[in-house]
Predict the 3D structure of the following.
Amino acid sequence: MKIGCATRRFCEQTEENTWAVLKEAGIEYVDGGLGEDGADGLDDQLMETLRGDFGAAGIKIWFVHAPFVNPYEISSPDSAKVELAIDAILACVKGCKALGGEGVVMHGSEHIKEPETAGSHMPRAKEALKRIVEYAAPLGVTIAIENLPPGYLGCRSSELLELTDPYDVDQLGICLDTGHANLSGGEGVDLIKDVAPLMVTTHLHDNDSTGDQHQLPGVGTINWDDVARALVATKYTGPVMFETAVSDSFEEMVRQMPDIATDLVARLRSARG
């Protein structure tokens, strides 16, 4: 079983000896960002430094997370923001390729403050994705759209399926974020079931359904047996990727991940009979 976790930006780790701590805990894969605007993905010196750091620690890049907060939004009505977002994502694709990663995780929108405009975000997102996939696919870099909380494009499985419909899963798939799904109430498990066949990476974390708290699985209100049953159809064979926030001790948090991952995989095997 392969295990990984999301970190902060690769170039701005807050914990000393981060990679060694992860490896000691049995964490072999990491996700992270390449800088606020993705431009660091074009910095050859940074790429060389990171490759050396990861290689020395025996850590592998899994996915790079593209910038996603304002002004980086692929479905914005502001064309300048769309272009800025696309440029940043393409830089992340290039950086991911340089680091030997699998793909790039991205969001479909910022928070949509005016619900009546939600429908107009879809065509803009689809046009942006077309350009991104056309750049990434020849490089062998997979793009993953993340399911988001209510109020964002990608909070419903119907939206995620529409965004990914024209593409092979190795070109454009789904990053399953369990915490975001839990914020959708009773629809969360149905969403997981619907997108399970398209899953190319995971952001596993928990919450109490009132906010995006990024707790370790088992701390919040997610029913992980329900999640396991919803994932029966998945063909995903990549690492069990966590995206949890540090509360007290970074080392203590990552040391718990292997046991939690073992439990989650056991639940999935049980659900499959």
The mean pLDDT is 91. The two ends are 19 Å apart (CA to CA). The chain has one domain: 22-109+131-252.
